[in-house]
Amino acid sequence: MKADRIHNFNAGPAALPLPVLEEIQESFLNFAGSGMSVTEISHRSTWFDDVINDAVARVKRILKLDDRYHVLFLQGGASMQFCMVPMNLLGTGDSADYVNTGTWSTKAIKEATIQGKSINVAASSEDRNFSYIPQSIVFDADAVYAHITSNNTIKGTQWAQFPETGGVPIVSDMSSDIFSRQLEMDRFGLIYAGAQKNMGPAGVCLVVIRDDLLARTPGQIPTMLRYTTYAEKNSMYNTPPCFAIYTVQLVLKWLEETIGGLDKMAALNGKKAGLLYDTIDRSGFYKGTAEKASRSLMNVTFRLPNEDLEKTFVAEAMKNGMGGLKGHRSVGGCRASIYNPTPLAAVEALVDFMKMFEGKHG
Ligand SMILES: *Cc1c(COP(=O)(O)O)cnc(C)c1O
User: Fold this and answer.
1) Domain 261-361, architecture per CATH
2) Ligand 1 geometric centre to CA of 175 (Å)
């Protein structure tokens, strides 16, 4: 029942806007007058054409993309992109720079290395347990691309400004902060994002790729792993994940029409994160794990004085209708993921709970 829904701070899959869930529920048995569910119609029907074309148009509008950029919907999650990016963009004699800022960057580097591609780790924050974003990085002017992870979901760090690469196109994994703020798209050759954090359900990955990088795709790699296959067929070479794309369409519509666009979204995200970091900084009880200048506005990671208290905190929060606050299993601690769909009221409730908990146990 709707009244039993909790404040959801899951890291991914994560909260979706309630109006989107309600619209899905309402139209589920009879989509757009088709007499069928959106999960039952052909992806070759005009009903689905309207869905995917509207989703693509919204991505282009929200990110202010010019005609050089192509919007693709793929499967295999962001993890598939760790493999496809070097496979499509790096030929013999080419090399790319990678910045290692945590678990996901490490995996991206691994997938390029497995394929025997020539890559250079231009900077890493592993020396301080990935608690910060490296600055003043010197990139190779001949690199085909410079790969970064714009928001580090597990460690709770985020690039506040994107690095100066001297004209080398940035390729960014934006799985956990896509559509959370304005981007200067000119600096990016390719961005990708698994949908399940900031824009939809699991099962679809958004890729935005520029012409010059698309032109690098070699003909002799498997059809399903080639970006051109998706670019040439409007992401419908084979059956796309229709339901996931439909949900993304509705989330983007919500972002444009209910929130009022990226500037409004970014302001709201700043406000939500500010409330939580203020609470952490004003207490001697909670301790943020990311260095201040590198803090993520999407994933707020923090510790309590000891692990027993952290367990109690997560359990008591749940009793108070707040879920998903346990840190990633690889790092422990606590994490509040506050992506676009998380309402301000959820963050306010969490802040009240944190103060109450500190009063009781601090
Ligand atoms: C969750 C996440 C991934 C992995 O996404 P999948 O869609 O599960 O492959 C990759 N990168 C970042 C930054 C993430 O947050």
Assistant:
1) Alpha-Beta Complex (3.90)
2) 6
